[in-house]
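Table S4 entry, Lactose phosphotransferase system repressor.
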Amino acid sequence: MYATERHREIAAAVRQHDRVTVHELATTFDVTPETIRRDLSELERRGLLRRTHGGAVRVERTSFAAPVTDAGRQNLFADEKAAIARAALDLVEEDSTIAIDAGTSTIKLAEQIGPDRHLTVVTYSLVVAGMLAGHPHVSVHLLGGQVVANSRSAVGPWTEELIDKLTLDAVFLSVDGVNVRHGITTHNVAEAAVKSKLMQAARSAVVLADSSKFGREEFARVAPLSDVDVVITNEGVDADHVGDIQDHGVNVTVVPL
C-alpha cells in the first residue's frame, strides 16, 4: 500500500472512531510504529487529526477554519523539533554571540539553553527573550520593531536597521520551506527580510527544519542555499532532497528520534 492510500485510510479511521493508536494502526497496515508516527505527523500538519501520546484523535472543526498560529505550530512535529534543537545546541559555542529567530523550532533551541551557559543572544522573538532573560550568564538583546501577534516577534525597518549594526558568530533559523530552486523560504515577507539580515550579519547560518519542510517553497524567499552552512533535520526526510542540498555545499545533519 502506498503512503497516500494509508494516509487516506488513517484519516477515515480517525473520523469514524474519534481516536486511534499507533499500535493498532501498525498492526492493521503491517508497518512499523515509526512509519505510523510519521504518517500521523504528516496528517497533523495537514490539519486532519491531532497527535497524542501513543496515537491521535479527531480534530473538531468550526464552520470557519481558524489559521494555525505559532502556538499551534509549536505542537506540530514536536518530537522532531525537540531532537533537532538538541543537535543544534551542540553548535552553540560557549562565550559566543548568536542570533535566534522567532520560529517554533528555534524556540525549542532556546528551551535547551541552560542557565549555566555564557552567551550573548540577539533575538526579535519576545518568547525567546522571555525564556532566556532569567539566565544569569546570558546577555539577551531584544530587537525592536512592529510586533507580529501570532509569532510574538518584532519585524520591520527598525528591526533591520538594528541588525545592520551587529556582527554575530552564528544565526539559528526556522524556515517553512527548503528546496534547491528557491533555497530557504517562509510565509511572511517581513520576517523573511529580518531572517535574511541576520544571515548577512553572521559568520555561520544554521537552519533548523523538520522533514516536512523539505521540497516545499513558501511565498517569501529568505536566502539561497549558498548562504546556508548547516541544515539540521530529522530522520525520515527524503534522501533525494538531502542529496540535492548537500550537492550545493550545505552540511546536512539528520538526527534520530
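Residues 189 and 220 are 5 Å apart (CA to CA).
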